[in-house]
Specification:
Helices cover about 35% and strands about 25% of the residues. The protein is α+β, with helices and mostly antiparallel strands.
């Protein structure tokens, strides 16, 4: 249902709070509350939200607003936020570079890994995302330099003594890229039935640390 039609039926709508993100997937809606570090899947609830063309929730209708207000998910006004990008349409060939990119690249990777482990130990999800937002670079990265840096990172990553799930892995790579004066979109996507969440980096329509065909199973929920 188009957002305009839903709004006309409801007559009123309220924005999501800062740090709360939502996306409609078919008839369902998935919400992420950064502060609570929690996802909520609302089955058959898409008609209670206004969404944009990509399914991202822009407003909550009055039928469900009281429940979300009680949970602290309703904002006082429209919060500025970046729209998630479309899913990437291609991937980088991460194994196209030299086996050993060099000592400087290795030291950068170790520094990024240590910084990521420190931040994940000290900061909640909302703090991690806010730190990444504050350090975002205003200008887009040159594609050639960005892809070369990703290839070098991929060559070194298997030898690095750092673990973590996709959130920490992509955060570590983001720190590495920013140490080179580069940047990327840090995207969180979700799927339903069964529910799953996943994190990746992309620039434009290019996946930087994952296979774009695997990412096709997810719907972008938010971006840093």
């Amino acid at each position: 249902m188009p957002a305009s039609a839903s709004l006309a039926r409801s007559g009123r709508a309220a924005p999501l709070a800062a740090g709360v993100h939502g996306v409609a997937i078919d008839d369902d809606v998935v919400l992420l509350d950064e502060g609570a570090d929690a996802y909520y899947c609302l089955a058959a609830a898409a008609g209670l939200f206004s969404t944009d063309a990509g399914g991202v929730v822009r407003a909550v209708h009055d039928e469900i607003a009281p429940q979300l207000q009680a949970a602290g998910m309703i904002g006082q006004g429209d919060e500025p936020r970046r729209a998630p990008p479309r899913l990437p349409r291609r991937s980088i060939d991460l194994w196209a570079g030299p086996f050993w990119p060099g000592g400087r690249a290795a030291l950068r990777l170790v520094g990024a890994g240590l910084a990521a482990e420190r931040d994940f130990r000290l900061l909640p999800l909302g703090g991690l995302l806010e730190r990444a937002r504050r350090r975002r670079r205003p200008a887009p990265s040159p594609p050639g330099r960005l892809e070369a840096a990703c290839v070098a990172y991929a060559a070194l990553r298997p030898w690095a003594p750092f673990g973590g799930a996709c959130l920490q892995r992509s955060y570590m790579m983001l720190i590495y890229l920013r140490s080179l004066g580069l940047d990327a979109d840090w995207v969180i996507g979700v799927r339903t039935w069964p529910f799953a969440a996943h994190c990746w980096l992309q620039a434009g329509d290019v996946a930087l640390d994952d296979d774009h065909e695997r990412l096709a199973a997810y719907t972008p929920l938010m971006v840093v």
